[in-house]
Amino acid sequence: MRLTEIRVSKLFGMFDHTVPLNQSDRITIIYGPNGYGKTAILLLVQGLLGGQFSKLRRFPFDEFSVSFEDGRKVYVTQTQPAESDKEVPQRTICIRVKYPDGKTEEYSSESSQRRDGVGFPLEIVEHSIAGLQRIGPETWIHVQTGQHLQLDDVLDNYIEFLPIRHRPRKKLPEWLAQIPREFDVRLIEAQRLIGISDSRRPRVAHAETRFKPAVMSYAQELAASIQAIQAQYGTFSQQLDSTFPNRVIQRSPATSLGAAELVTKLKELEAKRQRIIAAGLLTKEQQAAPIFDPQTTVDETTKNILSLYAEDVEKKLSVFDQITARIDLFKELVNKRFSYKQLDVESEDGIRLQTHAGLTLLPIDLSSGEQHELVLLYELLFRTKENTLILIDEPELSLHVEWQVEILKDLARVIKLSTFDVLLATHSPQIINNRWDLTVELKGPRA
Q: Model confidence over 224-276: pLDDT tens digits?
């Protein structure tokens, strides 16, 4: 499911914005002066599609709406607290869906903040809910996804796991609960160089929560992904090898490749294997001798065996297809930007960096601009599922203008590989470059 349009009226009490999403290029750019609501729009979209309703209360507006490609429209309105109740911030939101046939459904939700609190120490949250770590007074991070959750979000999504004293919230209706299941939405924030450590350790108090640079976390994550796929390759190879003799006996010679086809196929497979090795995906033990290349005439029995062998090699190597394409593009784009240094990928450390003088660098040794480039490309290539809606806030941060000019070209190549949509907020005319057809300008209030 894809979005087709976003609208918000009286954002901050004054701005009316309409953002039609580009369906063909899958990239939409919103730009405008500071304070016009670019980041607010991204957070409102994330809040609705991700089921994080606290974000819908974060900014004042009259109505926020999104339109889906199936004709549905979802509207969000706010009710401000009465003047006498301002010490109790209980802003109510109402969410309404309108279907193409005119049918509507509605849900309202009041802020969970109350005079008497929630009735339990907030430290209990991360002890009760696996995967959450506290990073602020009333803020948690879901380590696996990187989502930031406010107290309202925790109560909305995990109330049944918590020792709540007050009356639980009413259950979300199915039509509303379905929206986060239909949409995979991911926000790449402006402050994206710091992440939380995902170490497997006993849960700790808020003050002890450990942070680490995102480039280091992603290097470790990439290493773990490579090791997992190497293990998958090993298991699959053993399964095929163990049944190879029986399958040779049962195989019909009529299914064998001709001699010329066999030579071509084996050469193609060897080239593919070398590409996988260059991507850092095969261990030394898995880097077997070059695939057999028959240069002389072989009999029918040998052709039958080699044909099955070629089929098995193709199946084994197919395990690496998706990650190889992503690593190749990751290395190409990063190394095109970096000066006097080379990035490689391998299974032990994930990312290996070396200067042209032969010195080894850690990812944290990169400049802030280089780290921003690496983090952004990693997020898009390795943490984004097909048909995700990616929200990117200020991709130009710390980047030289020459790098900014290349961002849309890079995005187009990554989108062609991974197929997702991008809503991008920027101040930079260099990023827009000559693609003003992708832009939506956020304008001030009408006079």
A: 999 999 999 999 999 999 999 999 888 887 778 888 888 888 889 989 999 99
Q: Percent of the chain having pLDDT more than 90?
A: 47
Structural domains of the chain ordered from first start: 1-111+174-184+388-447 (3.40.50), 113-168 (no CATH), 218-321 (no CATH)
In whole angstroms, what is the distance from residue 314 CA to residue 295 CA?
A: 20
- CA–CA distance, 359 with 349 (Å, rounded to integer): 16
What does the pLDDT read at residue 145? Answer: 60
- Residues 44-59, buried b or exposed e (16+ Cβ, 10 A)? bbbbbbbbbbbbbbeb
pLDDT digits (tens, 9 = 90+) for 160-213: 667 665 545 567 889 998 888 888 898 887 666 555 444 433 344 443 445 578
Nearest to 269 by CA among 247, 250, 294, 246: 294
pLDDT tens-digit map of 119-171? 677 877 877 777 788 888 878 877 766 667 777 777 766 666 676 655 455 67
Angle at the Cα of 123 from the Cα atoms of 121 and 128, rounded to 5 degrees: 100
The 10 Å Cβ neighbour count of residue 300 is: 9
> What are the structure tokens assigned to 16, written together?
């009316």
Tell me the three-class secondary structure of the chain, residue by residue: CCEEEEEEEEECCCEEEEEECCCCCCEEEEECCCCCCHHHHHHHHHHHHCCCCHHHHHCCCCEEEEEECCCCEEEEEEECCCHHHCCCCCCEEEEEEECCCCCEEEEEEECCCCCCCCCCCCCHHHHHCCCEEEEECCEEEECCCCEEEEHHHHHHHHHHHCCCCCCCCCCCCHHHHHHHHHCCEEEECCCCCEEECCCCCCCCCHHHCCEEEHHHHHHHHHHHHHHHHHHHHHHHHHHHHHHHHHHHHHCCHHHCCCHHHHHHHHHHHHHHHHHHHHCCCCCCCCCCCCCCCCCCCCCHHHHHHHHHHHHHHHHHHHCCHHHHHHHHHHHHHHHHHCCCEEEEEECCCEEEEEECCCCEECHHHCCHHHHHHHHHHHHHHHCCCCCCEEEEECCCCCCCHHHHHHHHHHHHHHHHHHCCEEEEEECCHHHHCCCHHHEEECCCCCC
End-to-end CA distance of the chain: give it in Å, rounded.
37
Q: Which long-range contacts (CB under 8 A, 24 or more apart) does 355-364 make?
A: 362/216, 363/213, 363/215, 363/216, 363/218, 363/219, 364/213, 364/215, 364/216
